[in-house]
Design a protein that fits this description.
With 364 residues, this protein is an alpha/beta fold. The protein contains 14 helices and 13 strands. The strands form three sheets. A six-stranded parallel sheet has the order 3-2-6-7-1-8, with helices on both faces.
């Protein structure tokens, strides 16, 4: 039995309405049509933007399906007609849209999945604030809870994700010129969602999300266990020394400067038990790590350097923070320092050795 090859999905994502996602999608569609590709518009939302409407001219549009609800006539994308028409490529705007109750599928992205399963390629658009996993983050940034959301797997499974990016200042200027919303909505939008600080944060979310996808693809394609890092990731190595708290705070500042996720590692020696005071100290480090919204990692190994290197590889760490050695010079000469061992084991990772107050009475 012949099975149709799944269509390819390309998503145009942006930080907010008005960055030009739909316009860019239409531009690429025209170029493909010139090359002889059979392209249709499955669903287009111009929101009254003349430039966008003009750009759609010359492309075949599949009429929307009309749905009667009482005295209202509502419209949705006609997925069944698209399947019958069976173009090579279909354009679908606003991936996060929720369909009218009673529709065959609840979400527009579910319609897209049906189209892809039929072997038809899809170009679609969405804003980063509609991504399910970012819902709480976006609410904290903008004080707005986004109701329409797209499952993360849709972005993860896409064959290509393109960020359509403009500066916050450019986007605000477009808004003032009436290119995004009607005049009566402009000032309200500038005072709320389109505040510069919101746009800066949303822009970073969009750029990071695509960078994550690129990094995952790179990791999947690089052989021999090598790995590729696009984002910075900071690992702080704590011990039972009291100065670990100071070290952790310093590492958290480094992570903050780099806008990087924070990881904190404690390597326990299986050949000795921690005292009550030491256990409480490690608990304090874990609580502090949680306050900094980091990830606390607890492993057991007699070889501390090897354990750190393994964790660094697993979590794709780019920066490691350790304290300077508490050993005497004779101990370092006889057994070598942790720093020396890490330098030999680590590749493409920066090592930060933080000077801290000596605590001779403490034990590792």
């Amino acid at each position: 039995m012949y099975l149709k090859k799944r269509g390819k999905h390309k998503i145009f994502i942006g930080m907010a309405p008005g960055v030009g996602k739909t316009y860019r999608m239409l531009e690429e569609a025209h170029a493909l049509k010139q090359e002889g590709i059979d392209v249709v518009i499955g669903l287009l939302e111009t929101h009254g933007r003349k430039e966008t409407a003009d750009k759609a001219e010359g492309l075949e549009i599949i009429p929307r399906k009309q749905i009667i609800r009482g005295e209202l006539t509502l419209t949705e994308m006609d997925t069944e007609t698209i399947l019958k028409r069976s173009p090579q490529l279909v354009l679908v705007d606003e991936l996060a849209h929720t369909n009218i109750p009673g529709s065959p599928r609840e979400k527009r992205y579910e319609d897209v999945e049906v189209i892809l399963a039929a072997g038809i390629d899809v170009y679609s658009t969405m804003n980063v604030q509609h991504l399910e996993s970012l819902n709480d983050v976006v609410a904290r940034i903008t004080s707005i809870v986004v109701r329409e959301r797209v499952a993360d797997r849709i972005l993860e499974e896409a064959d290509e994700v393109v960020v359509v990016d403009v500066t916050p200042e450019t986007l605000q200027e477009r808004l003032r010129e009436g290119k995004i919303y009607a005049p009566q909505k402009i000032q309200q939008s500038l005072d709320n969602f389109f505040q510069r600080r919101n746009l800066i944060a949303l822009r970073e979310l969009a750029l990071r999300e695509v960078a994550d996808n690129v990094e995952e693809e790179a990791i999947a394609t690089i052989p021999n266990g090598q790995f590729c890092n696009i984002h910075e990731r900071v690992l702080v190595c704590v011990s039972t020394y009291p100065n670990s708290v100071q070290l952790l705070r310093r590492g958290a500042r480094i992570a903050s400067y780099m806008n990087a996720p924070l990881y904190v590692l404690f390597v326990a020696n299986p050949e000795r038990f921690l005292t009550k005071a030491e256990s409480l100290h490690i608990d304090t480090c874990e609580k502090l790590c949680n306050e900094f919204e980091g990830t606390f990692i607890h492993v057991t190994d007699t070889n501390i350097a090897k354990a750190i290197a393994e964790v660094a590889e697993k979590y794709r760490i780019t920066q490691i923070v350790i304290g300077e050695s508490q050993r005497s010079r004779w101990q370092i000469l006889l057994k070598g320092s942790l720093t020396q061992k890490l330098v030999r084991l680590l590749k493409n990772i920066d090592l930060h050795i933080i000077a801290t107050e000596k605590t001779p009475a403490s034990k590792r």
